[in-house]
Amino acid sequence: MDRLSSDDRMMGEALAEAAAALQEGVFPVGAVLAKGTDILGRARKTMASNHLSHAEMNLFHKVFMGDYRFSRADGLTLYTTLEPCVMCFGTLLHLPIVRLVFAMEDAYGGCASVTLNGAPPRHAARPVAIAGGVRRDEARALFASFLDTTAEPFWREGGAPHFQTAVRGEPVEISGVVP
Ligand SMILES: [Zn+2]
């Protein structure tokens, strides 16, 4: 299986998690951690309006608790249906993950395209390869369904306007991200 089809398959697993979140009335983000073609863990955002239980954080808590033995040599890849926020991206940089693949960009709060100018040595020496746009349309459709059905005031009152415009509008160019 080549990398492209493997990425598509893994993102399919993350999209399934996102769809389950949508069924639970939660902002539909799903995440999967993979070592090659092996899935090490999967999770989704839980609890609407919980600002810490993002899909990635839930996943990290599952996989990286206790005496884990992963290192950057394991080539771990994080798949997520939405470009990570500052909390999740920062945690990703702290963990032995060497690659990030996401589906839809978050023009409001996504941090994957943030350049770590002047990063301290630890992070300067541990680059993460990033690819966006994998199965974007399917992720976008889940977000559109959420916006159509949610009762959360934040979304109904137009919170995250850049993101909502992207969900409703034409595909937008992903800048600063290596495909
Ligand atoms: Zn996050």
UniProtKB/TrEMBL annotation:
| A GO BP annotation | tRNA wobble adenosine to inosine editing
InterPro entries for this protein: CMP_dCMP_dom (IPR002125), Cytidine_deaminase-like (IPR016193)
GO molecular function of the protein, one example? tRNA-specific adenosine-34 deaminase activity
**Where would I find the CMP/dCMP-type deaminase domain in this sequence?**
5-122
Its protein name is tRNA-specific adenosine deaminase
Q: What is the lineage of its organism?
A: Bacteria, Pseudomonadati, Pseudomonadota, Alphaproteobacteria, Hyphomicrobiales
